[in-house]
């Protein structure tokens, strides 16, 4: 199944540690937690704590990792800078900034350095309170796992089954796509499950739902096919977190 669903979309966005979303990172595997933290420019201790890792632990390929924000940043006051503009820019309150700096809020001296404490509620993104659990979309044989492979990164899990086998919604959600997606995915369904999580089911032979409708976990959404860049009947199953693909196995029982 080497050439099946060679999905190139999102490639740069997903594997670049400097991606603009910058709250999450997908491990390419092989590196130790502390090394990865250093390479990503985040505090190693916070990184390990946020992801329940030991500093020397090797990261598994395709693991979705939280990138903790620093506890504080230092900014230099420019012409026109106000405490309010700083607070807005950093997602903190004016009181937070005042508590950390001995300054007169009405007369910020240009050139002064202010510490912006970031250790409030937003220091670690909301994902820390547990990942969504998904159900298997069908009963089949895994023919290609998520991650690196000969022809590039594979952003989903390939599950082979007979043409026409029902594909079920992995969780409750709203159908955001149900159409011919492109030559890579063929006919595909995408479901938004909330909390920034979506699932995608590609290479379908027939779609059983329409964009905008709500489905429950276990509702049939499509039939297995061989459309798009596929070399045999299977579903290409993707889990996207904030539009970035992560290993579906992390969410499946
Ligand atoms: Zn695939």
Structure report:
Helix 2 packs across helix 3 and helix 4 crosses helix 5. Helices cover 14% and strands 30% of the residues. With 253 residues, it is of the alpha+beta class. Strand 11 and strand 12 form a beta hairpin. Strands 5, 8, 10, 11, 12, 14, 16 and 17 form an eight-stranded antiparallel β-sheet that branches. A three-stranded antiparallel β-sheet has the order 9-15-13, with no helix packed on it. The protein contains five helices and 17 strands. The N terminus is likely disordered. The structure holds zinc ion. The site of zinc ion has 7 residues, from loops. Zinc ion (ZN) binds next to loops.
Quick rundown:
The chain has helices at residues 11-15, 33-40, 44-51, 83-90, 94-100, and strands at residues 24-26, 64-66, 72-76, 113-117, 141-144, 147-149, 152-154, 157-160, 166-168, 173-182, 186-192, 197-204, 206-207, 214-215, 220-223, 234-241, 244-246. With 253 residues, it is an alpha+beta fold.
Which regions are unreliable across 5 or more consecutive residues at pLDDT < 50?
Answer: 1-22, 121-130
Tally the beta strands: 17
Fraction of residues in helix: 10-25%
Helix-strand makeup class = alpha+beta
| Largest sheet report | 8 strands, antiparallel
Distance between the termini: 24 Å
Shape: elongated
- Ions, cofactors, ligands: which are bound? zinc ion
**Structure annotation, total helices:** 5
**% residues in beta strands:** 25-35%
Round the Cα radius of gyration to an integer and report it.
22 Å
Query: Mean pLDDT, as a whole number?
Result: 81
Order of helices and strands: HEHHEEHHEEEEEEEEEEEEEE
